[in-house]
């Protein structure tokens, strides 16, 4: 590394600028070519088996250099953080200042660092919340209610199927028939609630016996069904109770914590929330532009709306990191590497640097929450 300069700036931010010599930078070329060859399609060649000269003609030399830079930063950034004992937190912003063949790779990395935090007595807060922890034991009443819901749902399905079958039969025969049940007439002036009420009044719930539960899945009988139902209810209830309990603990700690957050952290969290929102909109078959039009807002308006949530998420990240530092809670490197490998297998195109940051954050959060749960 040459011309390395590390500068602490206001707002808990560190900026690292420097250059990676060409002799070091060019070592990433073969790996970059191999990765691009697996992603690019060229007629007459299988993915991963495209000759270098043909690949360069297809994607251009600049694409090779950009992929080399991406791979280089996966090594450069963590190395700089460790060697210079920078308490980085959150995702860095990386800018390339020089990128050309036979030249050093110039860069500027802006990373948020752990700000000064005035933590409250988080152990005491967690202890108080733990004393109010709600039992997650499944009661007999909850089992009965769930069974009634299942019987009702099955009765509705059977009634709707019969109504549909009768309607098709009448349509096909074009004549009147005697039916063994009273039809549910269709009145266009009725509300959905009124129609639903009349349907509910005509429901005949199936008897809860061995024959019935065997139609629901691979159950030996009523007792087997009840045992497995209780197990599933316990798992779901435990998960919901734990989520709420941990949220209560962290809300109590956040409420009494004072700190100044770096804007880069808040912006990064807003970016993540916005990305998830865009993905959700896309899954509904709508473009984000069309969504913005429907709600009468711009993307900048949405970002402003999301900022309080982004600020809370960033604050949570800082508090958890501060507690993990204070209590020396750190995930084992072996576990981190295993989780990263799983992500890479599932998402081959995932950026390793982002994957590592994600895994370390998730594992650290889990360790902190488990620690607070024991207070």
Structure description:
The structure is a single chain. This protein has 375 residues and is α+β, with helices and mostly antiparallel strands. The chain has 3 domains: 112 residues, Alpha-Beta Plaits (2-Layer Sandwich), CATH 3.30.70; 136 residues, no CATH class; 118 residues, no CATH class. It is 62% helix and 9% strand. The protein contains 14 helices and 6 strands. A 4-stranded antiparallel sheet has the order 1-2-4-3. A two-stranded antiparallel sheet has the order 5-6. Helix 2 packs across helix 4, helix 5 packs antiparallel against helix 9 and helix 10 packs across helix 12. The longest helix has 34 residues.
β-strand amount: 5-15%
Q: Tell me the total number of β-strands.
A: 6
Q: What structural class should be given to the helix and strand makeup?
A: alpha+beta
The largest pleated sheet is described as: 4 strands, antiparallel
Could you name the ranges where pLDDT drops below 50 across 5 or more consecutive residues? 177-182
> What overall geometry do the principal axes of the alpha carbons give?
extended
* N-to-C SSE string, H for helix and E for strand: EEHHHHEEEHHHHHEHHHHH
Query: What order do the strands of the largest sheet run in, or round the barrel if closed?
Result: 1-2-4-3
* Gyration radius, in Å: 30 Å
Mean of residue pLDDT values: 85
- Give the distance, in angstroms, between the N- and C-terminal Cα atoms: 46 Å
Specify the number of helices.
Answer: 14
Query: What is the helical fraction, as a range of percent?
Result: 55-70%
């Amino acid at each position: 590394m040459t011309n390395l300069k590390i500068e602490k700036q206001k707002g808990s931010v560190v900026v690292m600028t420097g250059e990676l010599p060409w002799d070091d930078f060019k070592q990433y070329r073969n790996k970059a070519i191999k990765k691009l060859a697996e992603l690019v399609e060229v007629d007459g060649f299988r993915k991963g088996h495209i000759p270098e000269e043909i690949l360069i003609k297809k994607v251009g030399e600049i694409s090779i250099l950009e992929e080399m830079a991406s791979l280089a930063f996966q090594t450069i950034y963590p190395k700089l953080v460790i060697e210079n004992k920078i308490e980085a937190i959150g995702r860095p912003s990386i800018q390339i200042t020089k990128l050309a063949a036979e030249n050093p790779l110039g860069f500027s990395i802006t990373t948020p660092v752990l700000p000064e935090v005035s933590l409250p007595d988080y152990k005491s807060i967690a202890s108080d919340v733990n004393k109010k922890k709600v039992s997650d034991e499944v009661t007999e009443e909850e089992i009965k209610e769930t069974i009634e819901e299942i019987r009702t749902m099955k009765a509705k399905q059977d009634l709707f199927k019969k109504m549909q079958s009768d309607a098709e039969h009448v349509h096909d025969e074009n004549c009147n028939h005697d039916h063994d049940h009273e039809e549910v007439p269709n009145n266009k002036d009725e509300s959905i609630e009124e129609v639903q009420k009349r349907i509910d009044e005509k429901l005949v719930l199936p008897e809860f016996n061995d024959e019935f539960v065997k139609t629901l899945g691979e159950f030996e009988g009523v007792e087997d069904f009840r045992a497995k139902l209780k197990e599933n209810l316990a798992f779901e209830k435990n998960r919901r109770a734990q989520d709420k309990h941990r949220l209560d603990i962290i809300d109590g700690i956040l409420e009494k914590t004072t700190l100044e957050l770096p804007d880069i952290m808040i912006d990064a969290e807003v970016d993540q929330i916005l990305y998830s929102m865009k993905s959700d909109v896309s899954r509904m078959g709508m473009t984000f532009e069309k969504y913005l039009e429907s709600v009468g807002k711009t993307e900048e308006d949405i970002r402003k709306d999301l900022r309080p949530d982004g600020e809370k998420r960033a604050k949570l990240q800082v508090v958890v990191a501060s507690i993990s530092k204070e209590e020396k809670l750190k995930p084992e490197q072996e576990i981190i590497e295993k989780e990263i490998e799983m992500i890479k297998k599932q998402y081959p195109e995932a950026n390793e640097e982002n994957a590592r940051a994600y895994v370390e954050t998730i594992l650290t959060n889990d360790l902190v929450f488990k620690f607070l749960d024991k207070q």
